[in-house]
């Protein structure tokens, strides 16, 4: 169960910011995956594994749900289709706890707040424009493949 918690937290830090899905929908999918294992008959699965009912419930909640959710997110990200590169003007760059938060003039990624964050040490410069590569993921959810700031002369 501890592995499931750490895998889930690791995926929340690494792959969730690059996946363009509404946080509410992502949370609902996570909850469904956490409780889906409880739909299987306890007598046929949990009892056979020698678990009490509470152990079976916690196993599904803390191990199965986070691991399956992480697996789906990573499959979606790593199996993406062809990239589409777009350039966007940077309106504002704020530093928040060692992260740079970009705001774009055309409100690009406005509803995906975590996709606009970058670690301060990720890029050698803070440019006034940004190359952003988007792709459709393996499961159909769009992902940000790459972000690269650059300085434009205009």
Low-confidence stretches: none
The structural class is alpha+beta
- The count of domains is 2
Distance from first to last alpha carbon: 54 Å
| Helix percentage range | 25-40%
Q: How many runs of DSSP E, i.e. beta strands? A: 5
Number of separate helices: 3
β-strand amount: 25-35%
Please tell me the overall pLDDT: 86
Radius of gyration (Å): 19 Å
Largest sheet: 5 strands, antiparallel
* Topology as a string of helices (H) and strands (E): HHHEEEEE
Identify the overall geometry: elongated
Short description:
The protein folds into 2 domains: 2-78, no CATH class; 84-150, no CATH class.
Description:
- This protein has helices spanning 2-14, 23-36, 53-78; strands spanning 84-96, 99-104, 117-119, 129-136, 142-150.
- The chain is of the alpha+beta class and 154 residues long.
- Strand 4 (129-136) and strand 5 form a beta hairpin.
- It folds into two domains: 2-78, no CATH class; 84-150, no CATH class.
- Strands 3-2-1-4-5 form a five-stranded antiparallel sheet, with no helix packed on it.
- The chain has three helices and five strands; from the N terminus they run H-H-H-E-E-E-E-E.
């Amino acid at each position: 169960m501890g592995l499931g918690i750490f895998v889930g937290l690791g995926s929340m830090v690494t792959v969730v910011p690059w996946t363009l899905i509404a946080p509410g929908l992502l949370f609902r999918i996570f909850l469904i995956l956490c409780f889906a294992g409880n739909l299987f008959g306890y007598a046929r699965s949990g009892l056979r594994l020698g678990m009490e009912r509470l152990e079976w419930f916690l196993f599904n909640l803390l191990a199965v749900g986070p691991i399956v959710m992480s697996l789906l997110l990573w499959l979606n990200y790593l199996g993406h289709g062809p990239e589409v590169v777009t350039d966007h003007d940077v309106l504002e760059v704020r530093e928040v706890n060692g992260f740079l938060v970009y705001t774009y003039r055309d409100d690009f990624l406005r509803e995906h707040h975590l996709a606009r964050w970058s670690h301060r040490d990720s890029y050698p410069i803070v440019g006034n424009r940004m190359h952003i590569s988007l792709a459709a993921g393996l499961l159909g959810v769009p992902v940000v493949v790459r972000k690269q700031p650059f300085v434009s002369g205009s």
